[in-house]
Amino acid sequence: MTIINDNLPTSTLLELKVGDEITDGNNQSGTIKSIEISETDEFLMFLFQLEGSHNIVKKLKQVC
């Protein structure tokens, strides 16, 4: 089971796939049913749909 949050590296978030088990470290956990990734100028947003709930992680983009 992978603990996901805003501090998890983007590369690790991109490796997660449907069927993996995740938790937010608190009260939400389950098996990933779908993954949706949205991108803006400022951040990537990962929406992990679990059975009966969802978990959202926002990652700020690196600006050089």
- Beta content comes to over 45%
Which value, in Å, is the CA radius of gyration?
Answer: 12 Å
Number of domains as seen in the coordinates: 1
What is the helix fraction of residues, given as a range?
A: under 10%
Give the overall shape, derived from the CA principal axes. Answer: globular
Mean of all residue-level pLDDT scores = 88
Say what oligomer this is: single chain
Order of helices and strands: EHEEEE
Span between N and C termini?
A: 33 Å
For the biggest sheet, the summary is: 5 strands, mixed
Q: Which class do the helix and strand fractions yield?
A: mainly beta
- In the predicted model, the low-confidence regions spanning at least 5 consecutive residues are none
Give me the count of strands. 5
Biggest sheet strand line-up? 1-2-3-4-5
Number of helices: 1
Label this structure with key terms.
50% strand, 9% helix, 5 strands, mainly beta, 64 residues
Question: What's the layout of helices and strands?
Answer:
Elements: E1 2-3, H1 10-15, E2 21-23, E3 29-39, E4 43-50, E5 53-60
Parallel strand pairs: 1-2
Antiparallel strand pairs: 2-3, 3-4, 4-5
What report would you give on this structure?
By secondary structure, the protein is mainly β. It contains one helix and five strands. It has one helix at 10-15, and strands at residues 2-3, 21-23, 29-39, 43-50, 53-60. It has a five-stranded mixed sheet, with no helix packed on it. Strand 2 (21-23) and strand 3 form a beta hairpin. The mean pLDDT is 88.
